[in-house]
Design brief:
Elements lengths: L1 H27 L4 H27 L3 H12 L25 H12 L4 H14 L5 H27 L26 H25 L3 H28 L9
Helix pairs in contact: 1-2, 4-6, 5-6, 5-7, 6-8, 7-8
């Protein structure tokens, strides 16, 4: 009897996840912003249901099985994120009009020194390099890198709409390079400190760019990205507190 109940919770979670994706796709192509906003509200409600069902599954340690089944159904090797996410949908990617100056500002966020490109490669390297006893941190870093990839994709689309090709360079035309990554191999606490610093700097830079860019669509999108970065800052800070505060983890 109980077994069937938990199966139904897993099925309901899958349905809610599908519904969230469905409403977001619908909002993206709504004929006007008022309708898009209402549909985004529905998606937010579904996301709340999904979070509740997932927390139930989590508490029953059913989550692993649910995700395995979900992967099987979807027929792909893709795995859902295990970190918390912001329920607010991303605004539609659009601009008021082409603008090379704004494209340059966004290229800095895209592939400058402190950029999504650096964040992705930095968190992935720290993920590869984490010791086994910090497996949860390694997992979190990979998940955060996946979110940063989504940010990078959004920025690439914006830069294109503003009239520039989204090549891996900053606003001055300097190509991104692998020395931007603070590797800090073998020092997980130093790595976490640099990850915290990366998020803090990203938040400051995005906020400055929101001030400088007079395009309501770009402002909205950057503000939504900042919400993710604030969550990343919190996740990294909690991991640091758990393993590193007071010299708890001995660096090798
Ligand atoms: Fe980001
Ligand atoms: Fe981030």
């Amino acid at each position: 009897m109980h077994e069937r109940f938990w199966e139904m919770v897993a099925e309901a979670a899958q349905d809610e996840a599908d519904a969230v994706g469905f409403y977001r796709r619908m909002a993206d192509i709504a004929p006007c912003r008022a309708i898009a906003h209402s549909i985004e509200d529905i998606a937010r409600d579904e996301m709340r249901h999904l979070n509740y069902l997932e927390s139930l599954l989590c508490s029953r340690q059913e989550r692993g099985r649910y995700y395995r089944d979900r992967r099987k159904r979807e027929g792909s090797g893709e795995r859902p994120l295990t970190i918390p996410t912001i329920p607010d949908p991303y605004p539609a990617v659009q601009v008021e009009g082409p603008n090379p100056e704004y494209a340059r500002l966004l290229l800095d966020d895209y592939a400058g020194i402190v950029s999504e490109m650096t964040a992705i490669t930095q968190y992935l390297f720290h993920h590869f390099d984490m010791p086994e006893e910090l497996a949860d941190v390694a997992q979190m870093l990979e998940d955060v890198a996946i979110v940063e990839m989504h940010h990078m994709e959004i920025l690439a689309e914006l830069i294109k709409l503003l009239g520039q090709p989204p090549m891996y360079m900053d606003g001055q035309g300097l190509f991104w390079n692998a020395t931007y990554v603070p590797y800090l191999s073998g020092c997980p606490c130093e790595q976490l400190r640099s990850d915290i610093h990366a998020e803090q700097t990203a938040i400051e830079t995005y906020r400055r760019h929101i001030e400088l860019i007079d395009d309501r669509y770009i402002k909205e999108i950057l503000a939504r990205i900042v919400m993710d970065e604030e969550l990343h800052l919190q996740l990294f800070s909690e991991a640091y507190e758990k393993y590193c505060a007071g010299g708890r983890h001995k660096e090798g």
